[in-house]
Amino acid sequence: MAKKTIWFEVGEKESIDDCLQRMAKEGYQLAGRKEEPLFEEVNGVPVPIRQVIKFKGIKADD
């Protein structure tokens, strides 16, 4: 049985719970999480805008 893994990113206007529900709807189970900062350059200086949250989803293929 092969497992398919994809990353789901929490949308800017989406809650974490909404993203997890979307994963479950598509048949994926939570297998991991990662966060990374999103920066924008202002006057040559990187300024953090928000935190990007991603969830790793695993789906078993039949």
List the topology elements:
Blueprint: E1 3-9, H1 16-25, E2 29-42, E3 45-60
Antiparallel strand pairs: 1-3, 2-3
Description:
The chain is of the alpha+beta class and 62 residues long. Helices cover 16% and strands 60% of the residues. The chain has a three-stranded antiparallel β-sheet with strand order 1-3-2, with helices on one face. It has one domain.
Give helix and strand order, one letter per element, not per position.
Answer: EHEE
Into which percentage range does the β-strand content fall?
Answer: over 45%
The number of helices is: 1
Strand order of the largest sheet: 1-3-2
Percentage of residues assigned to helices: 10-25%
Net shape: elongated
Rounded average pLDDT: 92
In whole angstroms, the N-to-C terminal distance is 7 Å
Largest sheet: 3 strands, antiparallel
Pfam families: NETI (PF14044)
Protein name: NETI motif-containing protein
Organism: Chungangia koreensis
InterPro entries: NETI
Give a short summary of the structure:
The chain is of the alpha+beta class and 62 residues long.
